[in-house]
Every structure is written in C-alpha cells, then in structure tokens.
Amino acid sequence: MRAARIGGGALAAALLLLPPLSAQSVQERLQLAQAAVQGRQWQRAEQLLAGARGGSIGEAAAILHLRGLAEAGLGRTQTAAGDLERAYELDPHGRFYAGDAGLALLRANAAEAASRALAAATQEEPGNARLWQALAVADLRMGRNRAAAAAAQRGLAAGSGGLAAELHLLAAQALGNDGQIDPALAEARAAAALAPALPNAHLAVGILLAERTPPDLDAAARQFQRAEALAPDFAPAYLQLGKLWLRRRRFADALSQLRRARQLAPGLEEANYLLAQALARRGHLAEAAKLMQEYERARSARRQQLANQALPTFIVE
Questions:
Q1: Using CA atoms, how far apart are residues 119 and 101, in angstroms rounded to an integer?
Q2: Which of the 8 DSSP states describes residue 75?
Q3: How high is the pLDDT of residue 307?
Q4: Which of 5, 95, 207, 234 is the most buried (most CB within 10 A)?
Q5: Could you tell me if 255 and 275 are in contact, meaning their C-beta atoms sit under 8 angstroms apart?
Q6: Higher local confidence (pLDDT), 306 or 68
Q7: What angle do CA 20, 22, 23 make, to 5 degrees?
C-alpha cells in the first residue's frame, strides 16, 4: 500500500488528534519535545515544554535542556545559555548536558562559564574533537594560552577529522600569544598543509614568519599575497601586508594595501593607525591627522565599552 501524502488540511487534522498538552505526562512531553528538537522543529519543542514542571531533578533538568536547545535553534542565544547551564547544574551527569551548555555559553560570550562546562564535557567525551575545539576557544578568550594550546592538541589527538586545520590554527594562536613562535609556526604550517585553500592559515604563517627571530619578511609577504589571492575581500591579509611594507619602508605599497584593508573593514582600528603612519611618511599630513583622530575616538570608545562590561552586575544603567 502506498503511503498517503499528508497535505496542509490533513496535517492540521492529524495534529488535532494529539492529546492536549495539559493532558500529557511530563515524560510524554519530553519524548515529543526530543523528537521535535531532533527534527529541528524548534517552535513545536518550545510549545510542548511550555509550562512543563518536572517531578524530579532529572525531569526538571531534561525540560531545561530541551528548552535551551529549542531557544538556541530560535536564535535566543542568552536565554538558551541560561537554561542549558541550569540543566547542567541540576544534573551534571546528564548526557550531553555539559557539552551543550558549554557550546551555548560560548556563543553567548560567557567564556569562563563555558570553559568550566566544556572542561567537564571533555572528561565525559574525550574523543569529541568539537568539544576540545570549543574549550580551546573559551580558554583563548580568557587569555589562558597554554591551556588553549593543550586543548587544541588534545582535539587533534582525539581524531579531529575535518576540524584538524582549525585546531592547528587555534594551537598556533595560543602558542604565538605565549611567545612560542617556532612551535606556533609549525602548527600554522600544518594547518596550511591540511587546508591550502584556507586564507586564515596562510595569514597565520605570514604573521609568525614576520615575528620570528630573525624575521623572514619575504616569505611572510608571499603568504599574505597567497591569502589575498584566495580571498580578495579578506581585510586582515591586506592589513598585514600593508604593515609589512611599512616596516620595509615601501610606503606607496603600504598605502595601497592599507587603503584596501580600510575599505573592506572600515572599523578595523589598526588599519586606520597604520594608514595614518603611511600617509604621514608620504607627506599627506592633513589626511594622516584626520585618521589619527578617528583612531583615537574609536580606541576611547572601545576602552569605555570594556570598562562598562567590567562594572559589577548590580549596577543598573
């Protein structure tokens, strides 16, 4: 017998056959919500869980977990992170609770809480390279460079598959931040070898070649040019090549690169600063002064934003 296709009217009629939500047990709601989440039916999952109350800690945690996943699917990053973190706090041993909470907290820019949850998740699932990658990102955001490098390398050891190039880049960034330029360069080169079409990999190799002792500026320039060729709208490549030409006193070339970087990313503060320097070297003092004023205003606004973020949470603006 051929299965009948359910059209709009038939689907609506089928949904009417579902028991009212209030008549369903918590376990029934959880099962239906789980199926809805797996089917990426976020609003349906949210509807099923509306007003649900667990009769046990396990049920309460499951409700929060599924609701958080639905909220994440609907783009409500902050509320999703809160629900997923509460689910993990209620039931730290719930399957995937720590990992889901950590990933949501990372998306919500709560790096410290994300790091705690992801550290627990990687202990539960040491073979999950995605969790190690997320832990490396969280640790990087907090300036824990050695921990970030270790997490990225654990992800590589876990069998990273398609994440390998990104994990090598995270390790390169962490090691470079820690002043370990040669090990960082080895990681960046590994990323470029695995993903030769990835502009970020060539950018990282170029930056580290320029920073090592002694620097290899010619090789660095070739890496930046490779990144530009791969991604003509990739502003960081133009910025770094302009910075390199400024360092080599090739001011006309620096101007060309830095103008392009600023055109592609007007909010790139370093591009304004370096472009002002190049303009001044070429005698364009008025334009250089204007850019420096823009740079100082942007830097002052960023400092104020960071200061506001550091205010105690009980201060209400």
A1: 11
A2: T
A3: 53
A4: 207
A5: yes
A6: 68
A7: 70
Are residue 86 and residue 119 in the same domain, yes or no? yes
Asked if residue 73 lies in contact with residue 48, where contact means CB atoms within 8 angstroms, the answer is no
Contact indicator for 117, 91 with CB cutoff of 8 Å: no
Q: Which structural domain, as residue segments, surrounds residue 252? A: 235-298
pLDDT over threshold 50, residue 31: yes
pTM (two decimals): 0.79
Confidence of residue 55 (pLDDT cuts 50, 70, 90): confident
Q: What is the H or E stretch that residue 206 is in? A: helix 199-211
Alpha-carbon Rg for the chain, nearest whole angstrom, is: 25
Amino acid code (one letter) for 260: R
Mean pLDDT along residues 143-152: 97
pLDDT at residue 11, as a whole number? 37
- One domain for residues 214 and 243: no
User: Does residue 132 lie in a domain region?
Assistant: no
List of E strands, 19-137:
none
Cβ pair 222, 198 in contact under 8 A: no
